[in-house]
């Protein structure tokens, strides 16, 4: 079987990106409405003000989430998503691996301090 090459679109579908941004916007709008007392008995002008601020917060959250996720997706190299990593990522490329024979130091370590000399 031949594997289809991974593309950016395969990493996250546009519908998923929009859905995640929409859910974040709903949450931000609901929290804003709750904090401004929208669901309490208040005068009409305070209810209207809370609704407007909630919609603004939801819209701003939608846009910021959408742009942030889109920029984060641009960082990912699609060809490296399926590649296997067989070495530690934070070590330099020329450092010996712990899995290779002879990579450990010649002197065995004891529990109480530095390496003991070999006899």
What does this entry show, briefly?
It contains three helices and no strands. It is mostly helical and 119 residues long.
Provide an overview of this structure.
- It contains 3 helices and no strands.
- The chain starts with 7 loop residues before the first helix and ends in a 44-residue tail after the last helix.
- It has 119 residues and is mainly α.
- Helix 2 (14-35) packs antiparallel against helix 3.
- It has helices spanning 8-11, 14-35, 44-75.
Uncertain runs are none
Average predicted confidence as pLDDT: 80
Number-wise, the strands total 0
Main β-sheet: number of strands, strand sense, barrel status? none
Structural class: mainly alpha
Order of helices and strands: HHH
What proportion of the residues is helical, as a percent range?
40-55%
Give the radius of gyration: 27 Å
**Amount of beta strand:** under 5%
Tell me the span between the first and last alpha carbons.
56 Å
Q: Supply the number of helical segments.
A: 3
The rough form would be described as elongated
Features of the shown structure:
elongated, mainly alpha, about 120 residues, single chain
Secondary structure elements and their pairing?
Blueprint: H1 8-11, H2 14-35, H3 44-75
């Amino acid at each position: 079987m031949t594997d289809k090459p991974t593309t950016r679109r395969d990493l996250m579908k546009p519908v998923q990106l929009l859905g995640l941004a929409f859910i974040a916007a709903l949450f931000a709008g609901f929290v804003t409405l709750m904090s401004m007392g929208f669901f309490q008995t208040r005068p009409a002008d305070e209810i209207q003000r809370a609704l407007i601020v909630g919609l603004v917060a939801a819209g701003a959250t939608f846009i910021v989430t959408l742009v942030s996720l889109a920029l984060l997706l641009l960082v990912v190299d699609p060809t490296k998503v399926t590649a296997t990593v067989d070495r530690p990522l934070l070590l330099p490329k020329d450092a010996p691996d712990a899995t290779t024979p002879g990579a450990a130091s010649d002197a065995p370590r004891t529990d109480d301090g530095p390496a003991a000399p070999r006899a």
